[in-house]
Amino acid sequence: MAVIFYLSGSGNSLYAAQQIAENLEGCRLETIGSYLRKPYDVKDEVVGIVSPVYCFALPPLMAKFLEKLKAKPNYCFGVVTMGGNQGRALKQMSEILATKGVTLNYGQTVLMPDNFFGIPLEKREAQLKAAEPVLVKIVGEVAEGKADLGSVKEAMLWKLFGTSASWWYLKNRLNFEVMTVDATKCIGCNICAEVCQMENIKLVDGKPEFGSNCASCLGCFHWCPQSAISAGKLTLDNSKRYTHPKINLQMMKGDQ
Fold first, then answer.
1. I need a labelling partner for 160 at 20 to 30 A (CA). Which of 39, 193, 219, 253 fits?
2. Overall CATH class of domain 2-157
């Protein structure tokens, strides 16, 4: 049996996880939020982790998940989706797993549209097209149980700019972690809460309220049909909205 744990806001990592899972016998998908809410001993022989890259590293909650993961698989693989550069995401994944007695056997990256910066439609389409053969290759190699750690390294951009400096800018200059809603736009549809894998959003009097367990995935930001949600100084209009074209709301909600 196999399991793939994933974190996904706009659908990139979920799409990658789906493609891999379809070619692994008896494979199920599980969000890291689900596991963090109720940790358990993972008995699967194959364990995969699919994650976006934040600031040249793993998302903090993905790192927390790996630190809490209880598993002893025969084969473990990691795939990171990124807008430009993985930094040290895969190496960080390998290092955390090693502290748990788990060996990362395979690691690979996939370039996909960034959901933080506004990416022109033409560039998005080109990136998605280029990602398909990369995913096909990953799917085949994981299905074969291939060992390949060639991408598990520290990229130069991480060494030059650093994760800490990037997060400092997002938090202190853009107030990125302060999620707000424009009550004049919000229609109380509850989509933001339904796509939040951390269950960090609750509807109160018809409007979303944000808790303290945000994964900074921007899922609520991009899936909101009214563009009513802002992340600090980061605001969105329909021209900048991005969700993976092959992922729908039902998939994001876990109805796969």
1. 219
2. alpha beta
Q: Residue 165: its pLDDT value, please?
A: 64
Q: How far is CA 22 from the centre of its chain?
A: 19
How many CA within 13 A on the CB side of residue 173?
A: 6
Give pLDDT, residue 115. Answer: 82
**pLDDT value at position 253?**
87
Residues 6+ apart with CB under 8 A from 158: 56, 57, 85, 87, 88
Long-range contacts of the stretch 33-38 (C-beta < 8 A, 24+): 33/7, 33/61, 33/196, 33/197, 33/198, 33/199, 33/215, 34/197, 35/5, 35/65, 35/68, 35/69, 36/61, 36/64, 36/65, 36/68, 36/198, 37/199
Q: Which two tokens stand for residue 156?
A: 């130069």
For the stretch 164-186, pLDDT in tens is 666 565 666 666 678 889 999 99
Is the pLDDT reported for residue 155 higher than 60?
yes
- Multiple choice CATH, 179-249, 3.30.420.10, 3.30.70.20, 3.30.70.240, 3.30.160.20: 3.30.70.20
Q: Is 57 exposed, middle or buried (0-12, 13-18, 19+ CB in 10 A)?
A: buried
- Per domain, the residue ranges of the chain are 2-157, 179-249
| Residue 73: predicted pLDDT | 97
